[in-house]
Amino acid sequence: MPLYQAIVLALVQAFTEFLPVSSTAHLTLFPWLLGWQDPGLAFDVALHAGTLVAVLLYFFKDWLTLALCGVGLKYPANAPSEEVAQRKKLFWYMVIGTIPGGLLGALFERKIEDHFRTPYVIATSMIAIALVMWWADSKSRLTRPLEQSNVGDALTIGTAQALALCPGVSRSGITITAGLFRGFTREAATRFSFLLSTPLIAGAVVSHLPKLIKLHKSGGLDLPLSTLLISILVSGVVGYFVIAFFLRYLQTHTLKVFVFYRLLFGIIILVLAFLQAGAR
């Protein structure tokens, strides 16, 4: 893969990992649409490592506070006891919410990767989730801040996150949608989504990293190390700014533009897939 293609895909990953439009769908479909060779899952993992760094850096203070409070420490030292108790609960809500996605990933990730990365599945998922997202964005009360989260939110949003294993669903899209159905504000639903996604993204990267290193050493990954590192850097830096932009955007805007994008993109992919099948 030429360097420019790797950088393009790194930019695609950075924008689509955090916006509710499905990074898996775009990383699968961009090579298909442009006639490029599919770089495969190993390269996807490298790009996810970049966006993992982005979300860890952006929410570093949040995770540090949650983790320390979660294990019973008072942090910061001058924080009111009520805030410490709430943060402790939120940490364990994140732990609970991670379980459904972790279990389904361990059981079905390989089967999904082998059988569901097709234009028809991706397009259908893009359209279906767009309609559900529109419904949630229109009907949500938009009243609850993140501080009012509870175990029911963790289970609901965590179960929704597990559905993101299907290409085209979008981890951020389905979890933000679930958060809206629970009455969160758009910004609170998005923060919950990003915090909840961090452990699973980290787990996926860590579990696939040995395979990526092995492939690179054996020559099975046709990419120089410099290209991989540049791709990770691009996806990480751009991803950081995408997170900041999206959280600010949702303070004053709805999700309609992403709903329209998903619908349009899904329809275009279906049409192209049917035309390609008819030409064979």
Describe the main β-sheet briefly: none
Envelope shape: globular
Q: List the total number of helices.
A: 11
Could you give the distance between the termini?
27 Å
Global Rg: 19 Å
Q: What's the number of domains?
A: 1
The H-and-E topology, N to C, reads as: HHHHHHHHHHH
Beta content comes to under 5%
3D architecture notes:
It is globular and about 65 Å long. It has 280 residues and is mainly α. Helix 4 (60-70) crosses helix 5, helix 6 (119-139) runs antiparallel to helix 11 (256-279) and helix 7 packs antiparallel against helix 8 (171-181). It is built from eleven helices and no strands. It has one domain (3-279).
Write the SSE topology.
Layout: H1 3-18, H2 23-34, H3 41-58, H4 60-70, H5 81-115, H6 119-139, H7 151-162, H8 171-181, H9 186-218, H10 225-252, H11 256-279
Helix pairs in contact: 1-2, 1-3, 1-10, 3-9, 3-10, 4-5, 5-7, 5-9, 6-8, 6-11, 7-8, 8-9, 9-10
Q: Descriptors for this entry?
A:
single chain, 280 residues, mainly alpha, 79% helix
Brief write-up:
This protein has one domain. The chain has eleven helices and no strands.
